[in-house]
Design a protein that fits this description.
Keywords: FAD, Flavoprotein, Oxidoreductase. The structure is a single chain. It is built from nine helices and 14 strands. By secondary structure, it is α/β, with parallel strands linked by helices. The chain has a single domain, classed as Rossmann fold. Strands 1, 2, 3, 4, 5, 6, 7, 8, 9, 10, 11, 12, 13 and 14 form a 14-stranded mixed β-sheet that branches. A hairpin with a 3-residue loop joins strand 9 and strand 10. Helix 1 packs parallel to helix 5 and helix 2 packs across helix 9. The chain is elongated, with a radius of gyration of 20 Å. The two termini are 22 Å apart. 46% of the residues are buried. The structure holds flavin-adenine dinucleotide (FAD). Flavin-adenine dinucleotide binds next to helix 1, strand 2, strand 8, strand 13 and strand 14.
């Protein structure tokens, strides 16, 4: 196994986490992360980072989806409880989901089973914020701030001997001729690299503000959220299906500010750090699959890990572990493809 060469395409939260997991499985392998964008140029840096899978998050089966999420929660929670947890940007947070009309909005079949606490909000709690809140839940979960977690992960990867290269890949199959396995964590880039028509951008815009007095998260109707992270609070948001627009839109900024301030008036006057836009790499079923194919007269081996939509931070560790198992299967040559 000593001379195994693996390329990981993508340096967002999926690529970084997968590369570090691969080092645990293949201690002597040469592993390289190749990406055209790193750190704050990735979608991953836009995310609030809260562990909250939506009802539209699907793996190939309900059992596998649940395992990805459970493994992810345990991974982050174990890290959080070490002295490194805070350097990696992992914290525990609690807060509220409110809805004025939709009881479904405050339920979550995954979180109800995985989080240490998930309960209905009391009548008193429904009156905590202005608004006519009829339904509510209070829960405790985790938050992973990518601007800490990705540099922490990549530092560990490099300290273990991993390499980084900046390059735009035109063909995964061409690349696979130079490696034993290529692991594709290219997010929305997979739409083009794999000609995958199921990949759709879901545009999101947020405002990062300084408001250290906010320690609790709040979700309201219509994509309204206020999420305190390690050193900033994320205000959101919007979900624009099939939009490729990466520009900050003033109309969206005003709407986000207005809806968050009406939910939590103490936000008025909070200092704005940044406006950010990201394209969630959405696929109806997240793709974590192996592929063996013939290219240029040779057999090439790939494992895909992309399409996490609005839940890539949430599911990064679980899908990365699953992806590493597929790489192991390929490497041992017992693939059942
Ligand atoms: C507003 C907003 C809020 C969000 N909030 C949350 C949240 O609270 N919780 C949560 O779990 N998720 C959240 N998300 C979703 C999360 O950000 C994504 O699911 C996650 O970032 C996807 O990670 P990724 O590594 O797949 O993609 P990216 O971060 O986009 O990384 C893709 C990588 O692939 C590389 N790449 C692509 N194509 C090529 C190519 N041809 N050659 C070389 N490199 C290539 C890129 O350069 C990049 O390095 C949010 C997203 C948005 C937009």
């Amino acid at each position: 196994m000593n001379d195994l060469k693996i390329a990981v395409v993508g340096a967002g939260i999926i690529g970084a986490t997968t590369a570090l997991e691969l080092q645990k499985c293949f201690r002597n392998a040469h592993i390289e992360i190749i990406a055209d964008q790193f750190y704050d140029d990735t979608t991953s840096y836009v995310a609030a980072g809260v562990f909250r899978p939506g009802s539209g998050f699907f793996g190939p089966t309900e059992d596998i989806t649940y395992k990805w999420l459970k493994d992810s929660y345990e991974y982050y929670d174990t890290l959080r409880k070490t002295p490194e947890g805070i350097n990696a940007g992992v914290i525990e947070i609690s807060g509220y989901l409110f809805s004025s009309q939709y009881p479904e909005n405050v339920k979550n079949r995954f979180l109800e089973n995985i989080c240490p606490l998930y309960r209905p909000a009391t009548n008193e709690e429904l009156n905590l914020c202005p608004g006519n809140w009829k339904y509510g839940s209070f829960f405790t979960t985790l938050l992973t701030q990518s601007s800490y977690y990705i540099p922490w992960t990549i530092r560990k990867f490099q300290n273990n001997g991993g390499k980084l290269s900046r390059s735009k890949i035109e063909s995964l199959y061409q690349l696979a001729l130079s490696y034993d396995v290529v692991v594709n964590c290219s997010g929305l880039g997979a739409k083009f690299l794999c000609n995958d028509h199921k990949m759709v951008p879901i545009r999101g815009q947020v405002i990062k503000v300084r408001a250290p007095w906010i320690k609790t998260f709040f979700y309201g109707d219509f994509d309204t959220y206020i999420i305190p992270g390690v050193d900033s609070v994320t205000l959101g948001g919007c979900r624009h299906y099939d939009s490729w627009d990466l520009n900050v839109n003033n109309y969206d900024s005003n709407k986000i500010k207005e809806q968050c301030e009406s939910l939590l008036p103490s936000l008025r006057g909070a200092e704005i750090i940044a406006h950010k836009v990201g394209l969630r790499p959405y696929r109806n079923i997240v793709r974590v699959e192996k592929e063996i194919t013939n290219f240029d007269g040779r057999r090439v081996k790939l494992v895909h890990n992309y399409g996490h939509g609005g839940y890539g931070v949430t599911a990064a560790p679980g899908t990365s572990m699953y992806c590493c198992n597929l790489v192991q299967e390929l490497w041992k040559g017992n693939s059942k493809l």
